[in-house]
Amino acid sequence: MSIFISLVGLKGLIFVVGGLVFALSYKYSLNIFDWVEHQTYGTRTYIMEKLEFLFIDIPQDKVTYILLAASVGIGAFMFLLLGLFGKWLIGIIVGSILAFIGFKAPRMIVDFLVEKRIKAYSGQMVDALQLLSNGIRAGLSVPQAIGMIVDEMPAPISQEFNIILQQNRIGMPLEECFENLAKRVPTEDNDMFVSSVNILRETGGNLAETFDTIVDVIRERVRLQQKIDTYTAQGMFQGMVIGAMPYALGLIYFLQDPSSMTPLFTTVIGFIMLFFAVLFDLAGIYIIMKIVKIKI
User: Is 109 contained in some domain?
Assistant: First the structure.
């Protein structure tokens, strides 16, 4: 009788929990579907947009294959590899972790390349604006001065200004071309440059003097950023040392007594502890880097 009551109670609990899950899923179904789409097709769309910004031409099908190979492919390979040695449960855990990392890694790599390109663009702005100012002083129009930048400056700034010329040639107003530039390269210096150009073209004014002023502001910003980077370099180095210390200590323990470290890689509990240790270590490094990274 007690077993029957316990079974009825267990079924009732499962029914209640299932009903709550269904109700919440139904209520937030649109948000759930949006999240699923963002994590699947949305990731591919995001990567394609960033690759277009980077002037890297990769077909959409290949990006899909790369995402599948980096996530499902690597996860399944590790699952089968550990399964051959009879460690199916460990294979599921390790395969799932590697599949998650593999699916997120391409987006992180693309973001790194985008940030690197934007930083290179910002470093070329001073020379480009000086060239633009000299061209306008020589009597050239703004499109002609932009053409000088396209011809004489290296990528990426020549590529971005070349897009302005191409859009203007097909009939797009120059003000809108500059606004598109600010959207593609969202930096404070770029926003200031685009806003100044558009305002002066509407109200009138000396563009050459304005560009000289912007150049001075950018130079001061770069000088201040370099000084801040110098002061925070010690904090970044300490953060990297603290982040690498657990791995160094683990290697030392493994070299001195391998049997004490073997359960960490051969048992389920060891994998779980290793996963959370790495997770907390990465979170600590991320917080330290956020603290020492100062934007101006």
Answer: no
